[in-house]
């Protein structure tokens, strides 16, 4: 019997590392609304919160780390006393439960950097989710698991006290790096736990000269060398990493060490909106027994899931073990990346299909993390809007973005990796005028990058952005490679390019104090 008294938890019935089959059984028996899809996946519901609550995240200001943390709207500080108040509130709630679930798992496939994570929760759905998303120890490893590096107290069924200092709602997600603990109140969205682990890794990995990355990764089937793909939502990161010609290392969270890369997670957490076997065959077949489907609508007669129904939320999700993907590489480790790829969906129609970046430009565009929203996707959006997220994962950063960019530049230089900016967005004009790049053309660009065919391809320097635009790529029409030439009105292109460059420059002002002059000079000339 696992003793949790060290946490002041005195519940006698502790259910540790139950099998997926047992967690299925308990979810059906104990959780109202839970069901089993006709594919075999467990259907669960997260209640009122169907996504993360980033404005409710708090980080304890501690003398051992306060000089490291990038304080501000991403990392809002609280003192240790406030954390203890919320922790005690969570533990008081956990002590009222007849039984609790404990999941002891690993984060990170590389044993040298592996972190031991303990999740204490009340819902079998949450236990199954984290069993799926992290790396399950063997029976022998579990017996010698010892003290965890990071503990998550998930009391999400119970609200935070809004009158507690620095609380802004009934939801509170608090992280204390010393010791490694996370307290969840007022939200049952499972993704908070997953991103809590990533946040912790985002602090401790850079202290060991390891770059933590919000990216997908694939590897060559023969050499084992890898490539990493950064990109915000809608840029094609998941689609392009699902390449049957390559091995999948992971779809979301990785680290780059002196030996290569490794996946932090043991599972994948994919968007399920409009999922079909034709659009995403690998993901569709992976949502079977052992997987979790969140907040989806299903037919009560045959339990078929309607992935187009977003009446609960547009953020429907599926979590499944990575080994459910047929071309996954287990263990999820690979050699150093030959290629670092930044994906952007540029709705202004300005960015070229593919450009090569210098190390300084790589740092600039990595810190910028650019893509664009298009008209009609949100209320009030009637023209393309630039979106920037530092390091393509702003909500999860702990250090200043410049810290991660410096590590990236160092890894690129040490391993002679090529850096590419690939536009999966519009050509021939912005949204509403031009057309989106065909997926087949983008796949051809990716193939040419991975095969090395673009390494010596002819280039032309962009007058505003300064990067080297690739002018020829196999199986992509030459006339598409230079954006200005695809516009019927070249002067309109010039105007749009200057506008976008200005948005880059304005956004980067927030990070200028944390980078050197060479990186500042690598930005566009507005």
Question: Regarding CATH, which class of the largest domain?
Answer: Alpha Beta
Question: What structural category characterises the helix and strand content?
Answer: alpha/beta
What is the 3D shape?
A: globular
Tell me the helix content.
Answer: 25-40%
- Looking at CATH, the homologous superfamily of the largest domain is Phosphoenolpyruvate Carboxykinase, domain 1
Give a count of the beta strands, DSSP E runs of length 2 or more: 31
Q: Estimate what percentage of residues fall within beta strands.
A: 15-25%
Number of domains: 2
CATH architecture of the largest domain: 3-Layer(aba) Sandwich
Largest sheet: 8 strands, mixed
Instruction: Determine Rg (CA atoms, Å).
Output: 23 Å
Supply the number of helical segments: 13
Order of strands across the main sheet: 1-6-7-8-10-9-4-5
| Mean pLDDT over the full residue set | 95
Low confidence ranges = 376-381
Report on the architecture of this protein.
The chain folds into two domains: 8-33 and 48-209, Phosphoenolpyruvate Carboxykinase, domain 1 (3-Layer(aba) Sandwich); 337-521, Phosphoenolpyruvate Carboxykinase, domain 3. 25% of the residues lie in helices and 24% in strands. The chain has 13 helices and 31 strands. The strands form seven sheets. Strands 1-6-7-8-10-9-4-5 form an eight-stranded mixed beta sheet, sandwiched between helices. An eight-stranded mixed beta sheet has the order 14-12-13-23-27-24-31-30, with helices on both faces. Strand 19 (297-298) and strand 20 form a beta hairpin. The protein is globular. The N and C termini lie far apart (64 Å). 50% of the residues are buried. Residues 376-381 have low confidence and may be disordered.
